[in-house]
Amino acid sequence: MTRKPDGQEYRIDDNGFLISPGDWDEGFARTYARSAGIKGGLTDEHWTVIRFIRDTFEERGRVPLVYVTCMNFKMRLKDLKRLFPAGYHRGACRLAGVAYWTAQSQHWVEGKPPVAAERPPDGGHPLQGYRTDTLGFLLDPADWDRGFAEATAAALEMPGGLTADHWRIIDYLRAAHARDGVVPTLYATCEDNGLELSDLQRLFPDGYHRGAVRLAGLRFWRAMPQPSARKQR
Q1: Distance CA 38, CA 29 (A)
Q2: How confident is the model over 1-58, as pLDDT tens digits?
Q3: Which of 89, 94, 169, 227 stands 20 to 30 A from 112 (CA)?
Q4: To which H or E segment does residue 230 belong?
Q5: Is the pTM of this model over 0.70?
Q6: Which fold is adopted by the domain 11-103?
Q7: What are the φ/ψ torsions at residue 9 (nearest 5 degrees)?
Q8: Cβ(108)–Cβ(102) under 8 Å?
């Protein structure tokens, strides 16, 4: 059981994220830095990013998009990868004690990702007919079809709809997930498709996970409806 200096424990979910963002302290980031691929300890550069994410969450109730964080510090994708090799969300955000699903306070229940969405049977929502959670992610990736991606693009009000460039990334994500059983990191997606962060922002302005991954019918967190809380040993 991992403990804070005062003897209390860090409660984490099956994905290694803090169950309650309010339990975060700097000791949490130090404790889990190595599991995020940071072997030499946290430097001032790490802390600057971690504190920016943390401060943004506490001030605005939202996890900043990777684009926002990188632009704020004039960082390129290679700079972010050097600092957080596990990824922006699985590295930087996790060490900051937050996740993008915790940023939707109206859908957040402590320790549990969003549950199934409820829609009026005769509603005109673009995702009517698809089983999604309250953030619009498919409950079962096997239910995905191209109509889901089109409907999600409409729900996100993506100007111009989905182009061949969008479909190239969506098809890549689905193929990689089918092959490896995990969602590729932001780094892998950009590197394998010859994209800069600015290219990804242009295609998916709502973010990598909240945009591209969601359109592909995938999700970062594990089994639905929710992971069970566990204690780190």
Answers
A1: 11
A2: 455 555 668 888 888 899 888 899 999 999 999 999 999 899 999 999 999 999 999 9
A3: 169
A4: strand 230-231
A5: yes
A6: Arc Repressor Mutant, subunit A (1.10.10)
A7: -100, 155
A8: yes
